[in-house]
C-alpha cells in the first residue's frame, strides 16, 4: 500500500500519513473500477469463445437412453387438427382424461371422429371430472360414446387433460393452474406413454362408473317428433331468427321459446346450434 501511495504522490513528505485521504479513496476506487472493467471484458470474450466452440459440437447423444420427440401447440385449433390426424391411426386403444370439454359445436365434431374410432373396434376408456359433465353438450357426448362401446367413469376431479393413443402417443395440457395459454404437448414414445398410463390407471381405479341420466331415453327417431316440432327444426336449420320462425308458424315468440326449450331437452342437447346438428343427424331436416 505504501508503494501504491508513493507512486501516486499521496504520502506526506515525512511519510507519516496520507496527504489527502479523500483523493486516496478516489484513486483507489478508480483503480479497482478499471481492473473490474478489464476483467469483465476478458470474461465476455472468453464466453463468446466458448459459445463459438459449442456451436461446432454435434448434438449430445444419451447412450442407453431413449429420446422423446415432442410437438408443442399454442393454438388449440391446431392441436385438434393434429389429434384428428392421429385418430385414424389408432389401432387398439384410446385412453382419455377430461378436465373439461370444448364448446358444443366443437364437441359435436369430436363425437363424429370418436364414434368412427369405436366403430373400427378400438377400445376406449374415458375418465371425466364431475364438473366437466356439467359443460354444455358434455352429457350427450359421454352417453353417445358409452352407447357405442366406450367405458366411461366419473371422478370428483381428475389431475390433468390427457390423451394416450395405442400407448405410443401422449397428448397433454402443458398449462399450470388455470393458465390455459401455456399450450399443449404431444409426446411420442412408448416409455413416456407407459408413465402416463400409470397416472391414468390410478385415477381410473378411484373413479365410479358413469350412470346414464334420463337423457338416455330421449327421442331418437323422426317418429318421436310432431310435424310442428319438425317444422321448427327445419326453419332453425336455415338460420332463421325467432321472430321470423314465430311469424311463419303463426305463434308468439314466447310460445316459440317454450317450444324450443322443449325441443332442446327432447334432443338431449344444450343449445340451439347443437339442436340443429342433432336434428340433421336424426334425419329430421332435409
Automatic annotation (TrEMBL):
Pfam families: GerE (PF00196). GO terms for molecular function: DNA binding. One of its GO terms (biological process) is regulation of DNA-templated transcription. Keywords: DNA-binding, Transcription, Transcription regulation. PROSITE patterns: HTH_LUXR_2. Residues 218-283 form the HTH luxR-type domain. PANTHER family: TRANSCRIPTIONAL REGULATORY PROTEIN NARL-RELATED, TWO-COMPONENT RESPONSE REGULATOR. This is LuxR family transcriptional regulator.
Amino acid at each position: 500500500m505504501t508503494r501504491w501511495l508513493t507512486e501516486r504522490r499521496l504520502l506526506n513528505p515525512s511519510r507519516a500519513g496520507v496527504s489527502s485521504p479523500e483523493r486516496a479513496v478516489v484513486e483507489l476506487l478508480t483503480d479497482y473500477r478499471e481492473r473490474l472493467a478489464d476483467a469483465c471484458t476478458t470474461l465476455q470474450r472468453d464466453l463468446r469463445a466458448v459459445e463459438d466452440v459449442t456451436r461446432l459440437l454435434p448434438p449430445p447423444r444419451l447412450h442407453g437412453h431413449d429420446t422423446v420427440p415432442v410437438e408443442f401447440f399454442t393454438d388449440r385449433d391446431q392441436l385438434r387438427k393434429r389429434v384428428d390426424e392421429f385418430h385414424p391411426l389408432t389401432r387398439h386403444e384410446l385412453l382419455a382424461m377430461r378436465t373439461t370439454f370444448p364448446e358444443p359445436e366443437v364437441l359435436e365434431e369430436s363425437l363424429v371422429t370418436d364414434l368412427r374410432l369405436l366403430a373400427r373396434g378400438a377400445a376406449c376408456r374415458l375418465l371425466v371430472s364431475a364438473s366437466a359433465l356439467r359443460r354444455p353438450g358434455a352429457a350427450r357426448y359421454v352417453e353417445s360414446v358409452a352407447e357405442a362401446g366406450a367405458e366411461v367413469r366419473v371422478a370428483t376431479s381428475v389431475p390433468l387433460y390427457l390423451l394416450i393413443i395405442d400407448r405410443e402417443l401422449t397428448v397433454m395440457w402443458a398449462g399450470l393452474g388455470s393458465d390455459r395459454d401455456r399450450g399443449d404437448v404431444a409426446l411420442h414414445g412408448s416409455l413416456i406413454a407407459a408413465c402416463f398410463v400409470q397416472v391414468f390407471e390410478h385415477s381410473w381405479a378411484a373413479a365410479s362408473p358413469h350412470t346414464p341420466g334420463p337423457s338416455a331415453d330421449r327421442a331418437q327417431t323422426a317418429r318421436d317428433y310432431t310435424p310442428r316440432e319438425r317444422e321448427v327444426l327445419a326453419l332453425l336449420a336455415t338460420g332463421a331468427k325467432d321472430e321470423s320462425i314465430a311469424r311463419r308458424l303463426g305463434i308468439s315468440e314466447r310460445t316459440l321459446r317454450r317450444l324450443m326449450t322443449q325441443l332442446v331437452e327432447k334432443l338431449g342437447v344444450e343449445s340451439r346450434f347443437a339442436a340443429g346438428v342433432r336434428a340433421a343427424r336424426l334425419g329430421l331436416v332435409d
